[in-house]
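Re: your question about Class C sortase

S., sorry for the slow reply, the queue was backed up all week. Below is exactly what I fed in.
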Amino acid sequence: MKVRKSNIIVFLLLIISASLLLYPTVSNLWNSMHQTSAVGSYITKTEDLSEEQNQQLYQQAQEYNKKLVGQNLDRFIIDKDKEEEYDQLLQLEGTEIMSIVDIPKINLRLPIYHGTDEAVLQIAIGHIFGTSLPVGGEGTHTVISGHTGLTSSKLFTDIEKLEKGDVFTITTLGHEMTYQVDKITVVLPTELNDLAIDPKEDFVTLQTCTPYGVNTHRLLVRGHRIESGSTERQISSDAVEVSPLISNAIGISIILSFVGILRLNVWIFDKLLCNKHSRKL
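Result:
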């Protein structure tokens, strides 16, 4: 039986449609598992540090932050020497992660990396060079940035849901710091006044592009440091490990879904061929 080109095209279009339909879900699940694994690995490495090593890394970051206080906007300009110094701070062997951000309201936990290169922002959250390193303390203002609206990962897509009074945590070298949202603004990319360091305050700002799909402005969600409540979730390596059973179940479900759609497409294709053949008879 001769197969018409039009039937082949229909079949290929069905396969492509199924692949496009599944891509965001599969990609998001894959990246979520990767991020969870990366966070778990980072926490394990911080637990393996001696107290002396931990304090040394923390103090180096604090000294770096002190040098930023009182500087003008030139602190955002990267040169080779500054970049080399920056890249060595809060650096653990075997991982590029410097910290973790946890936002309970939107069920988000993500690793934070040095800098905001596109390679970082496609998979995680980046720390903006020229802002305080995420170790807290008076005279610090850490700014971290994440993409909105990626099909492959949610990242900071949902921070627009945050309201004043909501809390989030930053965990660096095992030190958990809690921040309460106190200011939400939308600014142009060139407007940096809201990223200023106040010598008497401890701020963290979450930044993403807005409006969705246009990205002409920046959404800034700022929080100030508060006491960590006794009900705050404690972070440990066990808390972020994904059970192999869950991982396997997700993987099998994705495969079965794809196979099901593929079989449906084959069935439709066969029906088309049968109908063509019947008409000829």
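The domain at 49-232 is CATH 2.40.260.10 (Sortase; Chain: A;). Strands lie at 97-103, 108-114, 125-127, 140-145, 167-172, 175-187, 202-210, 217-226.

Happy to talk it through on Thursday.
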